[in-house]
Structure to design on (302 residues):
């Protein structure tokens, strides 16, 4: 694999990397996104800045973005709850790129990266959850990224935990995302807190109400992970996103609860629950890796 470029076209920031054959970052750029109808222009500007840093122009380029990719991986066809101009955009045409630019869901891209050179390197069965504004996810099953019939596979934040709860953005009642996501903190805490970080700080300072809300989050996450373990039987579960930065305050109690909830037919310590290793550029690294794999597969099939 020669140098490849990956773009994470996030709704808050656009991140672009050039990586070598081992996944090492050779150059990177991060700029704010503009969700006022010019998001795609932000992506193009970030790519231009990255190319200016390189002494050559790679031909392989991939994009990670929130939403549902098309079956031909050329565009995002559905992006519920987001106001952006990238829905339906053909990136190969828009960027005037000389080779096809495959598009991958951002959580799927993060998992591709973590399984390549991160926290799940060498594993063939992996579950990833990204805990941020919402809850994203992805799975690798028997060595292959699970994309599904329409590309919907991996929307793990939209498994239901409360059949009587309010509908989430994908119309599932009481989804896992609403129990954990940054976007619902105010509603969940009756306007007392505006972020999960604020909630955790208050809980650690002894605020009993904050402690109850935090414990509810932890239980929701542990139940969700145990359910996904039953579905996918992974070697490891990787947790990424902003909430994962909570460290032992998150991982310690989640692991303790999993000792109660997880089905462990062979005994032992259960499935390892580990933090993501690649940080803010994971989605971009995964987009680059996926583009290389996509192009190889396309060449193999003529």
């Amino acid at each position: 694999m020669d140098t490849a470029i990956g773009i994470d076209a996030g709704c808050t920031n656009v991140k672009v990397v050039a990586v070598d054959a081992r996944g090492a970052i050779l150059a990177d750029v991060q700029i704010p996104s503009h969700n006022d109808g010019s998001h795609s222009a932000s992506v193009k500007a970030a790519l231009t800045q990255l190319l200016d840093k390189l002494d050559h122009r790679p031909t392989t380029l991939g994009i990670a973005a929130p939403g549902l990719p098309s079956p031909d991986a050329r565009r995002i066809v559905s992006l519920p709850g987001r106001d952006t101009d990238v829905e339906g955009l053909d990136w190969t045409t828009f960027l005037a790129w000389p080779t096809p630019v495959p598009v991958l869901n951002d959580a799927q891209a993060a998992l591709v990266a973590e399984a390549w050179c991160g926290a799940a390197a060498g594993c063939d069965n992996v579950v990833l959850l990204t805990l941020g504004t919402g809850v994203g996810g992805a799975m690798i099953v028997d060595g292959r990224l699970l994309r599904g019939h329409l590309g919907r596979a991996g929307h793990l934040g939209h498994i239901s935990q409360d059949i009587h709860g309010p509908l989430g953005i994908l119309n599932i009642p009481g989804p896992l995302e609403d129990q954990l996501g940054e976007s619902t903190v105010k509603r969940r805490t009756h306007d007392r807190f505006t972020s999960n970080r604020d909630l955790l700080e208050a809980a650690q300072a002894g605020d009993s109400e904050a402690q109850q809300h935090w414990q509810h989050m932890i239980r929701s996450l542990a139940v969700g992970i145990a359910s996904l373990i039953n579905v996918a039987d992974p070697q490891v579960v990787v947790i990424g996103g902003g909430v994962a930065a909570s460290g032992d305050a998150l991982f310690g109690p989640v692991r303790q609860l999993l000792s109660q909830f997880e089905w462990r037919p062979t005994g032992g310590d259960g499935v390892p629950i580990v933090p993501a290793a690649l940080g803010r550029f994971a989605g971009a690294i995964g987009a680059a890796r996926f583009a290389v794999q996509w192009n190889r597969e396309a060449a193999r099939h003529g």
